[in-house]
């Protein structure tokens, strides 16, 4: 058994896979926070606030787990792009993003239920997009991936070939920065190895 339990305040399969691949088996508690509460002039701040709201929503005052909340948002052309609401919106974003670059921000908020202490960070990763064809976009828009991810793209799905390069942490683009999580745990006096499943330590 791990020394401490990590609670993931998200139903994201991508975040869950990142943690499991790193030797951590979190408990999942979906927050149900409204992700549309976004400041159009502050993408970075919005990602941080939503991450904190998610962690706070599932943290239990009588618990002893560590709760991590995350929220990802793409800033492109000075505007925030969360999950697209419609395929039409997704198409307009993807067309505009062709050959351009944006910053994918993921907010992280870690709460220690046992002490009430918290640590927060927002990590930015620069993403440069390839010049996609109309046929490629049409095919991608017909998949279930599009409406489930910030900016209508991700690095771990069908849109991965449409990302030309990144500068920064790839996990951050997928939805959770493991280096940031390690740092936040350290701020609260916890080693990330304390979260590893038995046999991985």
Quick overview of this protein structure:
By secondary structure, this protein is α/β, with parallel strands linked by helices. The chain has 6 helices and 7 strands.
Could you explain how this protein is built, in words?
The structure is a single chain. With about 200 residues, the protein is of the alpha/beta class. The chain has one domain (about 5-195): Maf protein (Alpha-Beta Complex). The chain contains six helices and seven strands, in the order βαβαββαββαβαα. The protein has helices at about 15-20, 45-60, 85-95, 135-140, 170-175, 180-185; strands at about 5-10, 25-30, 65-75, 80, 100-110, 120-130, 165. Strands 1, 2, 3, 4, 5, 6 and 7 form a seven-stranded mixed β-sheet that branches. The longest helix has 16 residues, at about 45-60.
Structural class: alpha/beta
CATH architecture: Alpha-Beta Complex
CATH domain topology: Maf protein
Shape estimate: elongated
Q: Specify the oligomeric state.
A: single chain
Descriptors:
6 helices, alpha/beta, elongated, 201 residues, 29% helix, seven-stranded mixed beta sheet, 7 strands, Maf protein
């Amino acid at each position: 058994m791990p020394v401490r339990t990590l609670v993931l305040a998200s139903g994201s399969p991508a975040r869950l896979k990142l943690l499991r691949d790193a030797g951590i088996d979190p408990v999942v508690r979906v927050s149900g926070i409204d992700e549309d509460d976004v400041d159009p002039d502050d993408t970075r701040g919005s990602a941080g606030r939503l991450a904190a709201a998610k962690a706070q929503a599932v943290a239990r005052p009588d618990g002893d787990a560590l709760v991590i909340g995350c929220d990802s948002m793409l800033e492109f052309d000075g505007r925030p792009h969360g999950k697209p609401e419609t395929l039409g919106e997704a198409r307009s974003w993807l067309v505009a993003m062709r050959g351009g670059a944006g910053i994918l921000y993921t907010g992280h908020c870690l709460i220690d239920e046992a002490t009430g202490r918290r640590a927060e960070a927002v990590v930015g990763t620069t993403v440069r997009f390839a010049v996609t064809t109309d046929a490629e976009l049409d095919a991608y828009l017909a998949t279930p991936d599009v409406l489930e991810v910030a900016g209508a793209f991700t690095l771990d799905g069908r849109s991965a070939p449409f990302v030309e390069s990144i500068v920064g942490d790839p996990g951050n683009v997928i939805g959770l920065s493991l280096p940031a999580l390690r740092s936040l745990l350290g701020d609260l006096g916890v080693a990330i190895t304390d979260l590893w499943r038995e046999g991985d330590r």
